[in-house]
User: What shape does this take?
Amino acid sequence: MSYLRFEKAVMTNLQDSLRKELLRTNRSGAYSCSTIVDCNTRKYHGLLVVPVPEIDDENHVLLSSLDPTVVQHGAEFNLGLHKYSGNNYSPNGHKYIREFTCDKVPTTIYRVGGVVLKKEVMFQHFEDRLLIRYTLEDAHSATLLRFRPFLAFRSVRNFTHENSVASREYTEVPGGISTCMYAGYPDLYMQFSKKNEFVFQPDWYHGVEYPKEQERGYASNEDLYVPGYFEMPIKKGESIVFSASTKQIAITKLKGLWDEEMSLRVPRDNFYHCLVASAHQFLKHDKDNDYILAGYPWFKCRARDQFIALSGLTLDIGEVDKFELVMKTAEKGVREFMEGKPLSVAIYEIDHPDVLLWCVWAMQQYAKSQGRAKCFEKYGQLLIDILKYIIEEKHPNIRLDDNGLIYCYGRDRAITWMNSTAYGRPVVPRSGYIVEFNALWYNALMFCASMAAEKNDEPARIELEERAAKAKESFVNVFLNEYGYLLDYVDGNMMDWSVRPNQIFAVALDYSPLDAQQKKGVLDICTRELLTPKGLRSLSPKSGGYNPMYVGPQTQRDFAYHQGTAWPWLGGFYMEACLKVYKRTRLSFVERQMVGYEDEIDYHALGTISELFDGNPPFHGRGAMSFAMNVAEILRSLNLLDRYKYQK
Assistant: This one.
């Protein structure tokens, strides 16, 4: 039996099935995404969603959906599903679904009377091409298939509506047609592996509604253009492959391409394999550059997210080559930033003060995985240059004070991972001595000192250890309070006493400025006040402003984003801290925490982990359907668990 499998009772219950989303990517920036019943509930959903760099740096929905219709004895059975205004669903094709599985590829079985039709969907690697295979598994009489494509040709940020500018022109190509609704867009090629008839019957379908956008307080209606329909007969046992792409393909190659792509798929047959498959989805190859996208469906490559997620998505699943490819692009961006040059790579927020420190942390994970000698050989100069850049105070928002700590200004602009803003101001204006920044700084100094010692560079080792000793003493004096936990930030007389998860990094990092008793105190308060089955809360329920429910209009959600919501990636660092403090005695406890994440694999976006969760039970998943740091830290935690289990 498939690990991800849903029977008719779930599929026909829209309250359950519309919550479950499905994501497929091509690892070049394009994706295909909808719900498991093929009813789009977000403006970001679509069968073929691709970047169009000639227009902007956003993704664009070209093909919104493809409605199949089974025709027997003149009777039509439409298998599509759309939500329209007034809570109306049509044409209710979900009632014909008998079963849905997601092993190698998403597979839906429809039963219409005596007809059993199987639909399988995949995205071709590194090409903007969606493939769908339809197989008639059973039929007792002549059967026709009819397909209506719903076109959008618009940015994922916007909607389309009926207009006179949209082109109705199309060109016949082998196995189908090509069309382009607006100037500047690429042609969309819709082709079948079997000869078919295209019937030109242009029409606009009005008032298609996206409930997820309604929940988020946005506009939620659009019109979609249907140019006509494709029709062809199909025999029992026959398979037909459909291709939607920005490039034409020889239709004789479609079935072979399907088989070739299928051979590359890894089964999602358990929790770990689902996470590995999800890890691959965040990788993006663009020309000569490789990135990690922060999440789907709306995130781009963000520098901090990339460095935090890099180890878990590559090293911890044994894919060292991917780490090196991503780091090669990242190093180019980091050096361009430090040299004051325009970025030639598509990495956002690289100027945030902690990004360079997370870059050091990522290389530290590489050293633990591949050895210090190899790390120094590949990244030694970059490590030296980053520390020199910070020490010489060349960063526009890092000041290295006499007490050895780094000071960053963040009252007017969000500069940490807690980056939500409202009315142009940070919701959590963390500024001054920021706790995780300085924990990372101490860790970076000690790591680079140890690398210098290994290379017998005594002057560098002594200098770095002296700086680290000063930072360590000041860290404890500035952040540790009489209640045994760490202040979140200190800016002159302003001290944030809120119990937040950022203090956990001072325990989890390999080099900590805290002694054993201090680590235990920090870990224990995080356990008591922040720990949930879905990671650490961003704020303790006992602290002022606790707001754990990430729901409602945008502004309401902005105020809740880091005020009590739970984040699995923070849970990864918590579990690392837990194992470092309590060793093997907490193995079973950490294993039980993992169960909370496995429950999510088939609840929201199949096979992956949502961006964040409500801080109160039942801890619903919210935000983006798939988030790189969360997947990465769970994979890293699983790897840590294995290492602690089998160490002597």
